[in-house]
Automatic annotation (TrEMBL):
This is non-specific serine/threonine protein kinase. The keyword Transit peptide does not apply. The lineage of its organism: Eukaryota, Fungi, Dikarya, Basidiomycota, Pucciniomycotina. Pfam families: Pkinase. Belongs to the protein kinase superfamily. CMGC Ser/Thr protein kinase family. InterPro entries: Kinase-like_dom_sf, Prot_kinase_dom, Protein_kinase_ATP_BS, Ser/Thr_kinase_AS, Ser_Thr_dual-spec_kinase, STKc_PRP4. It comes from Leucosporidium creatinivorum. GO terms for molecular function: ATP binding; protein serine/threonine kinase activity. Keywords: ATP-binding, Kinase, Nucleotide-binding, Serine/threonine-protein kinase, Transferase. It comes from the Eukaryota. Residues 64-387 form the Protein kinase domain.
Length: 396
């Protein structure tokens, strides 16, 4: 349900199978093992520093009873547990999710940073109305930092797979989810926090599917900590300024949510790029070519463009061999567009007038959220104006 990631990754870990296959689980399932009747062995960690969690195990001096292994990500293992109360007494048995950080110093520090960021956001949202997952407490267990979160049932990736595979979910449901995501984005912007890994996997939904919360702030950082790296954010949701090596801010999260909303409505990945270079090609096909002035400022332009700023398909980030590169002239105007994808004439004939207007508002919003320049993406105020316009269409 949760995973941690280093604040500034140095390699594109999104090339792993979990990112290549958008329907893959966010975590590798862990084989369930029952707690042995004999005493536990002395070696509690595996060779990679993961804690070997056991079903039935008690954590934090008997407070948490492990009832399910949810899996493990690159930087932590996660379990579902029941809260039995301090010392195993007086608890209500409420289920929680516990992220157990790997026993490495860098991971421990990343876990502390995530906890600090979550506390900052919770302090700014004391009434729990801004749709950020709540960190309940932290503790240490056999050398591992453990973060205890409220438990939520599934993520948006699972929602789409279960209820809208290949076709997406109802636009009004997308609108309801969007309004909650925008509240989370507004809170993070207010607190100068960049999430830096927003995607359907990192947005959890409650049992009734009516309420969502943004989770997994393992890659989050203050806006002042914007070191240039081409691999921040999972690849399919990575804003172009990250790939090109330009300064970035909270608007990178707006891009990621734009990609996520498209995916919710269509059931398909908007930019399923195999590499950063392929991502740029797909982005330009939909949004047109980049401004030359912008490319001249970017740190990684030479990885993807020649000296005339013509696009190099294949990219130098993969290979410097000339036979692998192909210069492609990108037209100023996009060869594809969101409106024709989401509002084909054949489909529009089947919709009512108010549904067409609603979809039109949605397309307009996505176009702005996916602006090539972060400074041109809509602010929280503009995003909420969209929601009000939609509400008028719906008569709500």
């Amino acid at each position: 349900m949760f995973s941690t990631a280093p604040p500034k990754p140095s390699a594109d870990t999104s090339t792993a199978d979990a990112d290549a296959d958008p329907n893959a689980q966010a975590f590798v399932p862990i084989i369930h093992r029952s707690l042995p009747t004999a005493g536990l062995v002395d070696n509690y960690d595996d060779s990679e520093g993961y804690y070997k969690l056991l079903l039935g195990e008690l954590l934090d001096n008997g407070r948490y009873h492990v009832i399910a292994n949810l899996g493990k990500g690159m930087f932590s293992g996660v379990v579902r547990a029941r809260d039995l109360g301090e010392g195993g007494k007086g608890g209500d048995g409420k289920e929680v999710a516990i992220k157990v950080i790997r026993s490495q110093e860098s991971m421990y520090k990343a876990g502390l940073k995530e906890a600090a960021i979550l506390r900052k956001l919770m302090d700014a949202d004391p009434d729990d109305k801004k749709h950020l997952v709540r960190l309940l407490r932290t503790f240490e267990h056999r050398g591992h930092l453990c973060l205890v979160f409220e438990n939520l049932n599934m993520n948006l990736r699972e929602i789409v797979k279960r209820f809208g595979k290949d076709v997406g979910i109802n636009l009004r449901a997308v609108r309801a989810y969007a309004s909650q995501m925008f509240l989370a984005l507004a809170l993070m912007k207010k607190c100068d926090i960049m999430h830096a890994d927003l995607k359907p996997d990192n947005i959890l939904v409650n049992e009734s599917k009516s309420m969502l919360k943004v989770c997994d702030l393992g890659s989050a950082s203050d806006t002042s900590e914007n070191d240039i790296t081409p691999y921040l954010v999972s690849r399919f949701y990575r804003a172009p300024e990250i790939i090109l090596g330009l300064p970035y801010d909270c608007s990178l999260d707006t891009w990621s949510i734009g990609c996520t909303l498209y995916e919710l409505y269509t059931g398909k990945i908007l930019f399923p790029g195999r590499t950063n270079n392929h991502m740029l090609l797909l982005i330009m096909e939909l949004k047109g070519k980049f401004n030359h002035k912008l490319l001249k400022k970017a740190k990684f332009t030479e990885n993807h463009f020649d000296e005339r700023l013509e696009f190099l398909q294949g990219g130098r980030e993969v290979s410097f061999a000339s036979d692998t590169l192909k210069t492609v002239t990108i037209p100023s105007k996009a060869t594809h567009d969101l409106r024709s994808r989401l509002m084909p004439v054949s489909a529009m004939k089947k919709l009512k007038e108010d549904e067409v207007r609603l979809l039109g508002h949605f397309v307009d919003l996505l176009e702005r959220m996916l602006s090539l320049e972060g400074s041109k993406r809509p602010t929280p105020k503009v995003r909420f104006l969209f929601l009000r316009a939609v509400a008028r269409v719906e008569g709500g």
